[in-house]
Amino acid sequence: MFIQAFPAGPIETNAFLVGDEASGQAIAIDAPGDVTADLIDAARAAGLTIGLIVLTHHHWDHVLDAPALKAATGAPIAAHPESAPLLASPAPPAMPIPVQVPAITPDRLLRDGDTVSVGRYTFRVLHTPGHAPGQISLYEPDAAVLFGGDTLFADGFGRVDLPGASVEQTVATMRRLLQLPDHVTVYPGHGQATTIGAERGWLTRLVDRR
Ligand SMILES: [Zn+2]
User: How far is the CA of 58 from the centre of ligand 1 (A)?
Assistant: First the structure.
């Protein structure tokens, strides 16, 4: 599996180019500000075509470039149904940013249990709310990779003090992620990749306290 991270935008949000080199099929996961040119250059260099733009959740730092990336690639935008109204009517960011957050209408809705095919890979959509109500993760069991947006980081989870966030949903989501095997690599929306095994200790203590 081709995986390349592109930290971009004012708070270093990770976009990912994920592809199957054999078929040339690829998807983009999240679209932080000013990432479009880098994503397209990397796809071209790797012989990949971006066929879908998946937004893990509606937060501005993950979606600023989604319209530009769609315009440049022709790829549809996909998100969870609970993200759709929040994407369509974006709230002003908590921090001042120099650009306006675009209103986005997803072309395709991804629900828990849906699948996203990328060449020989089949990603399962997991609804992983908590940090945001419509947050989704893409899990590929054969390649043992999970792209979770701000669901799970190395040593932490996405902040729960934002509108629409929920501690209870976060704990339920973490309980679900604990069912994944230790060797699954987690690619988060900020910072470096980790594994389920590396996070299992504190995750287990977190859910056991509840
Ligand atoms: Zn977020």
Answer: 7
